[in-house]
Amino acid sequence: MARPFLKPGDLEAVEAAVRAAEIRTTGEIYCVVAEESSDYHATPLAWAAGVALLAPAVMLLAGVHVTAPDMAMFGGWTADQVEDVGEATARAALIGTLLMQGLLFVVTLFVVAIPPVRRALTPRGMKRDRVRQRAEEQFLAKNLHATRERTGVLIYVSAAERMAELIADESIDAQVDASVWAQAMAALTDGLRRGDPAAGFAAAIAQCADILADRFPARFGDNPNELPDAVVVLPRA
Fold first, then answer.
1. Is the model's pLDDT at 66 over the cut of 70?
2. Nearest-angstrom CA–CA distance, 150 and 173
3. Alpha carbon separation from 236 to 39, 92, 182, 211 (Å, rounded)
4. Confidence at 92, pLDDT banded by 50, 70, 90
5. For position 8, what pLDDT does the model report?
6. How far apart are CA 203 and CA 226, in angstroms?
7. I want to staple 25 with a disulfide (CB 3.0 to 4.6 A). Which of 62, 187, 189, 212 is the partner?
8. Cα separation of 115 and 107, whole Å?
9. Cα separation of 33 and 31, whole Å?
10. Which domain holds residue 94?
11. What pLDDT, on the 0 to 100 scale, is given for residue 117?
């Protein structure tokens, strides 16, 4: 069984970091970890089709050549007989090519379908788009857009892709430039690269709290906790 991205102690540490951060601000910080943001089912098919198209080149490199029969050997044959032999040769070459294409397609499909291979061969831009799309879905599904003052912040990490997204609601966007979050995201991704996602989360949450507390400070006696502080862990898409 694969080692969990966040161990129980890590989950508790991130939850404590969220709780401590929200004491200082009316903002709501919500953390989501997805095992993987997409199954990237199109990647094996695309690679298999592309490799299969190389079958003629593979056959040529392997020394397989199709040549027309030597007409001298057909002395006494009719034109129809010679034509039949030529058609049979061409047909055999075509069948051989199709079989090679089918073999390459199946082998490539199975190899690229192996999860680490599939992820490695999926274009980074596509993975980024899928991670962003899943984060936006979670922002809406978890009602971060429905907090009292529209001050929800989603920190989303996709474990398999080692990518993260931060989405802030409209009240925050109106006052905080998107570039301001860069330092928080850098702290988060640094933790991911070091294999210490809990520390990355904690650092990012603390920096988000600094930004939010400056613009949306907590009000004594009027700072409800509208969203759970615990990290949500999503299974593979």
1. no
2. 10
3. 8, 46, 27, 32
4. low
5. 86
6. 22
7. 212
8. 15
9. 7
10. 42-119
11. 94
